[in-house]
Every structure is written in structure tokens, then in C-alpha cells.
Amino acid sequence: MSRTIFCTYLQRDAEGQDFQLYPGELGKRIYNEISKEAWSKWMAKQTMLINEKKLNMMNVADRKVLEQEMVNFLFEGKEVHIDGYTPPEA
């Protein structure tokens, strides 16, 4: 059964996550405010960031960097800046 939430990222009602994908308070906020569509956009950015910055998910500092980028992207409306990547023009 799908649930509808108001997505902070998309600024409209959209299909919510089926379960909490991220731990802790931030995970609850994502579950309640971030749609599947917005999360999949973040997943694509996250992959590019990990590759670009050569982040190691076993490294706490690297995870913090990624988490901050995630918060900026999902909640602050900030585009992820990836060196050497130019988004396709709309």
C-alpha cells in the first residue's frame, strides 16, 4: 500500500517511502518528508559524489560529508556540485 506525503524536495504531494531508509532522526525526517521520486534523484547524485570525491563509506568523515550533501540537496534546495559534471540542459 502506498502512502502519500508532502515532499519537501518536490514541494508537492507524492508517493512516500515504504519504510525508513536512513537511521535516526534524519531518517525519520526523510521518511516523513521525502518522496520516492526525490530519494531516487538523491541516489543518482550520491553515486556521482561517491565516485567523484572517492568517498569511502567505511570512513566516518566521508559519511558525514555525504550526509551533509544529502541534507543540502533534499531539504535546503541546494544542487550538488560535482567537479567535471555538467548537468544536461533542460
Structure notes:
The protein has 90 residues and is mainly alpha-helical. It has a single domain (4-75), classed as Fe(II) trafficking protein YggX (YggX-like). The protein contains three helices and two strands. It has helices at residues 24-33, 36-53, 60-75, and strands at residues 4-7, 12-15. The longest helix is centred in the middle third of the chain and has 18 residues, at 36-53. It starts with a strand and ends in a 15-residue tail after the last helix. The model has no long low-confidence stretch (mean pLDDT 92).
- Write the CATH fold name: YggX-like
> Strand share of the residues?
5-15%
- Indicate the CATH architecture: Orthogonal Bundle
- Assign a percent range to the helix content: 40-55%
- Kindly provide the name of the CATH class: Mainly Alpha
Annotation field: number of helices: 3
Give, in spatial order, the strands making up the sheet with the most strands.
Answer: 1-2
Low-confidence stretches: none
Q: Secondary-structure element order, as H and E?
A: EEHHH
SS class: mainly alpha
Q: Can you summarize the main beta sheet?
A: 2 strands, antiparallel
CATH superfamily: Fe(II) trafficking protein YggX
Mean pLDDT: 92
Alpha carbon gyration radius: 14 Å
Instruction: Report how far apart the termini are.
Output: 33 Å
Q: How many beta-strand elements?
A: 2
Number of domains: 1
Dominant shape: globular
